[in-house]
Write a structure and sequence with these properties.
With about 210 residues, the protein is mainly α. Helix content is about 70%, strand content about 0%. Helix 1 runs parallel beside helix 3 and helix 3 runs antiparallel to helix 4.
């Protein structure tokens, strides 16, 4: 029998669970786990949203770049009938005023297309577009008679325009992260497709 006043081991209170310190550690671990899970989910969701946003803007850039190139080529194409009519290179039944209106409409479309490039494009693509615009203006000026020039100068301006279009393609592809090139050793520079002249002053001035 135990001595008086000294509780036996069986009579001492025993904890039926974890101690206070251990409970606090367990609670802290649960909280850390919950916070870690929440942070991980938040970062994943933010990354997913950012990727979706980048994809959406890339899609808009593709449309803007494609529309700008189409509009630039349309402006070039609209200049050809006017130039040929003014220079007597091809017979046309349309009044010169109508041909000028066609070129003006094409120029309006080009201007709107380049505005989208300015809003969405990368720095190099925008600068490449500015360089192309200079050549387009020179073609426009010669077509309308605001500047003089020979047939060879006219053709050289068209060569310069399509070189500038290729340069714009390169800048646009780089901005979109597209592999490959449209110029270089695998893509030798190609000249205008000009048909054989049928006379001293005939033949398409641009190869159309």
């Amino acid at each position: 029998m135990p001595a008086c006043g000294v509780p036996s081991a069986e009579l001492r209170p025993r904890g039926d669970g974890l101690g206070t310190g251990e409970q606090l550690v367990t609670i802290a671990a649960v909280l850390v786990g919950a916070l870690t899970t929440h942070a991980t989910n938040y970062l994943m969701e933010r990354s997913r949203n950012r990727n979706q946003l980048l994809t959406r803007w890339d899609d808009k850039k593709v449309d803007a770049y494609g529309e700008y190139v189409d509009a630039a080529k349309l402006r070039i194409a609209a200049s050809v009938p006017l130039y040929e009519a003014r220079e007597g290179l091809r017979e046309t039944h349309r009044p010169e005023e109508d041909l000028r209106d066609d070129l003006a409409q094409a120029s309006l479309r080009w201007g709107a297309a380049f505005e989208r490039v300015m809003l969405l494009g990368g720095d190099d693509a925008i600068e490449s577009g500015h360089e192309l615009n200079v050549v387009l203006a020179e073609i426009d000026w010669q077509a309308t008679g605001r500047v003089d020039g020979s047939l060879e100068e006219w053709r050289e301006r068209h060569r310069a325009a399509f070189r500038a279009i290729n340069a714009f393609h390169e800048a646009a592809r780089a901005d979109l992260g597209i592999r490959g090139r449209v110029t270089g050793e695998k893509h030798p520079e190609r000249d205008l497709l000009v048909p054989p002249a049928r006379g001293s002053s005939t033949g398409s001035p641009t190869g159309d």
